[in-house]
């Protein structure tokens, strides 16, 4: 069995966390920060920002918060700075917000907490400003960088499933997307995705750490590691698994209906090759969804079996 230290090394490897030899990234230059915020080059270029660099400490804090909060949504803020076309996320903190399984609302309590937290950060020498927010469910329309963490897949995969996004200015049209990567979207979210898919773009993410935050990272890891050992992905994700199975079944019914209808109408509406290509595309997507879900369930079962053999010996 992996020790906590070995598991931490494996987690860092899975998330491709780079260890810095230079501590320069941790130095905060307020004059430089204010200069770029006043110049606001992102207003001239809607896709000015290209990358987000996140400290291992901030990544672990977000992972702990989002996995602990599921199935309810949670939200927090990130502190950091801007360097050229890159957001540097140094730290993150949770907000006391009201969450449901579909949305999270930041009320007066969260706003007051945020202000108080930032004041205390200044007192202890943490000068970085808020550069964005993180959420355990996609959101739209915020002017900073938005980090989305999938707590379900984080528990299943053993690495943090995370994405970084930034919204386009209002009225901006990015044109046709060049991305060919398939993304599984539940049927009840497809309408929202169709409305908002061209309102934001994805940023590249890198993770880093150094000797500066190693001690605190180790303390947090011990807590995270215990939670992972004492929880079951198969049990914790059971609602997600049931919803995913039902979603695939609904998509199969819809595909079967459209394929049957397309076959009858192909002579009038489209050439046979085009109809067949559309059918194959739908079935390919369903196959990918099924494989992904099966893999996640299998990972959860294997993990549970390993823990049972280790901790329930008689």
From TrEMBL:
MF terms (GO), sorted A to Z: metal ion binding; metallopeptidase activity
InterPro entries in the cross-refs: CSN5_C, JAMM/MPN+_dom, JAMM_MPN+_peptidase_M67A, MPN
GO biological process, one term: proteolysis
GO cellular component: COP9 signalosome; cytoplasm
Alphabetical list of Pfam families matching this protein: CSN5_C, JAB
Chief site of localization: cytoplasm
Annotated spans, Disordered: 263-282
UniProt xrefs under Gene3D superfamilies: Cytidine Deaminase, domain 2
Superkingdom in the source lineage: Eukaryota
Ranges where the MPN domain occurs: 52-188
Keywords: Cytoplasm, Hydrolase, Metal-binding, Metalloprotease, Nucleus, Protease, Signalosome, Zinc
Amino acid composition bias (Basic and acidic residues), ranges on this chain: 271-282
Entry's localization field: Cytoplasm; Nucleus
Family in the record: Belongs to the peptidase M67A family. CSN5 subfamily.
Protein name: COP9 signalosome complex subunit 5
Organism: Naegleria lovaniensis
């Amino acid at each position: 069995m992996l020790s906590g230290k070995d598991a931490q090394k494996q987690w860092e490897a899975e998330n491709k966390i780079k260890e810095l030899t230079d501590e320069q990234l941790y130095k905060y230059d307020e004059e430089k920060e204010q200069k770029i915020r006043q110049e606001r080059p992102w207003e001239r270029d809607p896709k000015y920002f290209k990358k987000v660099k996140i400290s291992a400490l901030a990544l672990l804090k977000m992972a702990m918060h989002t996995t602990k909060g599921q199935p309810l949504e949670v939200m927090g803020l990130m502190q950091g700075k801007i360097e050229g076309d890159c957001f540097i996320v140094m730290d993150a903190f949770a907000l006391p917000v009201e969450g449901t399984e579909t949305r999270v609302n930041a009320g007066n309590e969260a706003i007051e907490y945020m202000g108080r937290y930032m004041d205390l950060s200044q007192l202890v020498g943490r000068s970085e400003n808020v550069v964005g927010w993180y959420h355990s469910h996609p959101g739209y329309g915020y002017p900073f960088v938005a980090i989305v963490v999938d707590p379900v897949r984080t528990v299943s995969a053993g690495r943090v499933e995370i994405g970084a996004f930034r919204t386009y200015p209002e009225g901006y049209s990015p044109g046709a997307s060049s991305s060919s990567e398939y993304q599984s979207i539940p049927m009840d979210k497809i309408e929202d995705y169709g409305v908002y898919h061209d309102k934001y773009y994805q940023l590249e993410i890198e993770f880093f750490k150094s000797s500066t935050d190693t001690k605190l990272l180790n303390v947090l890891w011990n807590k995270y590691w215990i939670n992972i050992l004492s929880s079951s992905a198969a049990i914790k994700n059971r609602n997600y698994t049931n919803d995913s199975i039902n979603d695939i079944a609904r998509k199969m019914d819809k595909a079967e209906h459209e394929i049957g209808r397309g076959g009858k109408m192909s002579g009038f509406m489209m050439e046979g090759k085009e109809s067949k290509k559309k059918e194959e595309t739908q079935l390919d997507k369903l196959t990918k969804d099924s494989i992904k879900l099966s893999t996640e369930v299998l990972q959860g079962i294997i993990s549970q079996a390993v823990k049972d053999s280790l901790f329930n010996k008689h």
